[in-house]
Design brief:
Shape: globular
Helix content: 40-55%
Structural class: alpha/beta
Oligomer: single chain
Largest sheet: 8 strands, parallel, barrel
CATH topology: TIM Barrel
Number of strands: 9
Strand order of the largest sheet: 2-3-4-5-6-7-8-9
Length: 282
């Protein structure tokens, strides 16, 4: 069933868990995530990131996401992830997405505030929630770009949170505390105190981006400290790639749909294992 960002977060908060948000740039990803969530009977967020526009145009993948969310047996938020400009976010909201992230986190603070507030005004008038970000991850969405020489320089400044929330009216806030997009080359060092310090200043849902590749214990700790939504994609996608590659190597020749199905099964297993952790099932 189609649900808002606030609704799926509230369900998770009541259970002392975090809701998983998965980028789903193709049908195999979509089915893998939704089947995993239904098997565990937990709410979930399916997301389309603007950088995936060349892979799956919003106008084509968006209606599929919304249709499958409506049919799902569990609450599903359909979310735009890392919208880079107002116009693209507006397209998602107008299409029926229940949530949109406007990402001006790499811009000067005042530009972030102004642009986020503009998006909030429009989205709220059309029944959608808005996520924004303070601080920035060392790598761009998609795992591209160079890691920062000093990642701590990108961390969220907790003292800015009250002003940002007051002036923008956002419904969820992504914070930076040591995670990064993409596949980790070295183990990330997380500054958990930032979560605690931000949580002391607000009850707003808090979001962790770059959620792949950290330990089960670290997942449990960030949830305990106040993270309500965890974005996860890179390691699930890589599991699908590895399965498809193995299938091709083992069979030599065959049909694409068989290779795609092997990737879908691997991604479902990865998503289900991840949701188990987020939901305190293991």
């Amino acid at each position: 069933m189609l649900a808002s960002l606030k609704e799926v977060v509230e369900i998770s908060k009541k259970n002392g868990t975090a809701v998983g948000a998965f980028n789903t740039p193709n049908l195999e990803c979509l089915l893998a995530v939704l089947d995993a969530a239904e098997s565990l009977n937990v709410p979930v967020i399916i997301s389309h990131a603007q950088l995936h526009e060349p892979v799956a145009p919003l106008d084509k993948i968006g209606p599929v996401m919304l249709e499958l969310a409506e049919r799902s047996k569990v609450p599903v938020c359909v979310h735009l992830d890392h919208g880079e400009d107002f116009a693209y976010c507006k397209r998602a909201v107008d299409m029926g997405f229940t949530s949109a992230m406007i990402d001006y986190s790499t811009r000067p603070y005042e530009e972030n505030v102004k642009g986020t507030a503009e998006m909030v005004k429009y989205a709220h008038a059309h029944g959608a929630d808005v996520e924004a970000e303070l601080g920035a991850l060392p790598q761009r969405e998609g795992g591209t770009g160079e890691a920062a020489a000093d990642p701590s320089a990108l961390y969220t400044k907790p003292e800015l949170v009250p002003d940002f929330l007051k002036r923008t009216g956002v419904d969820a806030l992504a914070i930076a505390f040591g995670t990064a997009h993409g596949i980790y080359k070295t183990k990330p060092v997380l500054n958990m105190d930032i979560i605690t310090r931000v949580r002391e200043k607000t009850d707003i849902p808090l979001v962790m981006h770059g959620g792949s590749g950290i330990s089960h214990e670290e997942y449990r700790e960030v949830i305990r400290r106040g993270i309500n939504k965890i974005n996860y994609f890179s390691y699930m996608s890589y599991a699908g790639y590895a399965a498809a590659k193995a299938h091709a190597e083992q069979n030599g020749s065959g049909f694409f749909h068989d290779m795609a199905l092997s990737a879908q099964k691997a991604m479902r297993e990865n998503a289900e294992n991840t949701l188990r952790v987020f939901s305190n099932m293991e």
